[in-house]
Amino acid sequence: MTEPTLAERVERVESELTDAARSAGRSRDELTLIAVTKFHPAALVRELYELGLRDVGENRHQEAREKAAELSGLPGLRWNFVGQLQSKKARQVREYASVVHSIDRDAVVSALAQPAEGEGALDCFLQINLTDDPARGGARPDDAVRLAELIAAAPGLELLGVMAVAPLDEEPRAAFARLRGVSDAVRGVHPSAVAISAGMSHDFREAIAEGATHLRIGTAITGNRPPRD
Questions:
Q1: What spatial distance separates the first Cα and last Cα of the chain, rounded to whole Å?
Q2: What is the predicted pLDDT for the residue at 120?
Q3: So what's the pLDDT on residue 200?
Q4: In the chain, what are the domain boundaries?
């Protein structure tokens, strides 16, 4: 059986997003599709751009920086940093990223808070840990409001909302419902933080049903990751 082309995969995902939004009583226009391109070459990002996608996601700083430099001539291409962010690398990530999805502690807020001269505000999400494992990335749900206030008060940062990954051992919709509750609490102190970054290739339908606005979709679009050296 012939593998679908990149264009066919994008078309299929777009169709599924539209269907999932309709089922949730929402519009496709409410959703931002982020193609997660980690481990794939810059050439694939260029192909996605030519297919009309403008948001791509990376979770490794060095790889993201190299791709962003190579593709700097593509107008309107937005780099979303979706991986765990080390505070010592935060300034460098700010140089190319349009959006950071993984702010989860005070040190990262401090590292990102001071824009260089001429830089505008950096859009960001507060990452929430939906597991009981403190080693996983993300802030505790009961610390979300405090961190949201810290981000909202930081110069050079614009809090869009909350982000999370559904635990593997939990039904995705239940996890995303809890994230929606955290989102409601954050919006109580920062009303403009209405966005929810949630949902990947295997669970974006459940995320959309619970109000997700930004979908981070990898293999359903890019196919399997290429072998690494």
A1: 28
A2: 84
A3: 97
A4: 6-222
